[in-house]
Amino acid sequence: MSRFWNSRTRELSPYIPGEQPQNRAYIKLNTNENPYPPSPRVTEAIARAAGGCGERLRLYPDPACRELREAVAERWDVKPEQVFAGNGSDEILAFAFAAFFETGSVAAGVADGVASRHNAAALFPDITYSFYPVYARLWGVPYECPRLQDDFSIDHTGFLTPCGGVVFPNPNAPTGMAMPREHVLAIARYHAERNAVVIVDEAYVDFACCASGADAALPLSVIDSINDHSNLLVVRTFSKSASLAGLRAGFAVGSEELVEGLCRIRDSFNSYPVDRLALAGAAAAVRDGAYYEETTRKIIATRERTAAALVEKGYTALPSRANFLFVRHPALTGAEFFTALREAGILVRHFNMGSGDSRSASRIKDFVRVSIGTDADMDAFLAVCAQEVV
Ligand code: PMP
Questions:
Q1: Which of 45, 106, 232, 383 could bridge across to 280 with cysteines, CB 3.0–4.6 Å?
Q2: Which atom number of ligand 1 is nearest to the Cα of residue 90?
Q3: The domain at 40-288 falls in which architecture?
Q4: How far is CA 167 from CA 125, 228, 385, in A?
């Protein structure tokens, strides 16, 4: 606490990101980064964007982010006006909470029945991306957290209730489990009639292919459905499947009115959140789908093999359609397993908080989240897991 902080700053409980160690070479499986480099076209585009001696860096970037929005629009067959670009998807999510979810004082001040979306909290699952409650508190958005089912899947019917808006990742984090597309669209349809916005955070959707299982080949993304649902906003990142966590770029696709809402928040905050290098690099990544299909395919194969090996050793691994596994050791607590791996030079992520109450937190305290690395990384991880079981 500092005497210089205002009451808002004093009351914040900021998100704590995964560790980025500077002093020891760990096998880093803690922040869902991609183990493979980005497409060579990305680095070429970044060099071009800087100019020979970096002379283009003198100039501000395009505030409208046209090149990136046009690349996204072409790839997903939407209009550039339906695309918003941001400094990582975290920024877009923060803007979306500010733009579309009502704040507490307004929510309390609107009489019942005047506008149903104004008298209810935003909804997100009790176990999910831990930045959502942070944004809600930052902007004063009241929220409620429907409970995951006993198998850790999202019960979509818990989201079919009047509210101030809905947000969830699909696949969910940190479980990695996916909600079927029909359920996502059922949520969007239900809230369309009530003018509430449904935000689907598809940070991990490119990894949703599964090596086996009935839904293996089905696409999970609902990006192709935004023209049927004017209240549906799909948020994507370049940090995971595009191997560009260090660049900071993301985008959202939705109706023009949703994109305009995001622009109003951005332009009340920072006119140039996406820098010149990120705009060029991210646009080049969108255009090199073939390269990324290959790296994504490798990660999915490594995930499936790692999950099978863990289950064989008596571990629990939730059925993941993301680039990470949520894993429980057969005997150690989550904290003990985390520490054993760390001492062996492997960094993973341990969460002990749910978005809602302490019962949610206690359901995941014995799990750790393990990002999928290269085959060699995962062999090293599995070797430690084998020792830890003996
Ligand atoms: N959504 C989810 C579910 C995530 O796990 C992350 C990564 N921490 C993000 C969004 C944010 O990604 P970025 O800001 O790097 O685009």
A1: 45
A2: 14
A3: 3-Layer(aba) Sandwich (3.40)
A4: 8, 18, 35
Residues 6+ apart with CB under 8 A from 387: none
Overall average pLDDT of the 303-308 stretch:
98
Domain residue spans in the chain? 20-38+290-385, 40-288
Q: Is the CB of 250 under 6 A from ligand 1?
A: yes
Is the CB of residue 174 below 6 angstroms from any atom belonging to ligand 1? no
Q: How confident is the model at residue 29 (pLDDT cuts 50, 70, 90)?
A: very high
Please give the full DSSP string across 84-133, using - where no structure is assigned. Answer: EEESHHHHHHHHHHHHHSPPHHHHHHSPTTT-GGGGS-EE--SSS-THHH
Parallel, antiparallel, or unpaired: how do β-strands 165-169 and 122-123 relate? Answer: parallel
Q: Is the CB of 202 under 6 A from ligand 1?
A: no
- pLDDT at res. 199: 98
CB atoms within 10 A of CB 262: 23
Strands (E), 249-291: 250-253
The angle at the Cα of 330, spanning 326 to 332, to the nearest 5 degrees, equals 90
Q: Which of 159, 154, 256 minimizes the C-alpha distance to 198?
A: 159
For 107-155, the pLDDT digits (tens) are 554 444 344 444 589 999 999 999 999 999 999 999 999 999 999 999 9
**Cα dihedral 125, 129, 134, 138 in deg (nearest 10):** -80
Category of 85 on φ-ψ map: left (φ > 0), alpha (ψ -120 to 50) or beta: beta
Fold of 20-38+290-385: Aspartate Aminotransferase, domain 1 (3.90.1150)
User: Is the pTM here over 0.85, yes or no?
Assistant: yes
The CA-based dihedral angle spanning residues 225, 217, 291, 370, taken in that order and rounded to the nearest 10 degrees: 100
Question: d(Cα 102, Cα 255) in Å, to the nearest integer?
Answer: 19
Please report how the helices 289-312 and 276-287 are oriented relative to each other, as an axis angle in degrees rounded to 10: 80
pLDDT at 20: 86
Six-digit token string for 48 = 């071009």
Residue matched to tokens 């991880």:
381
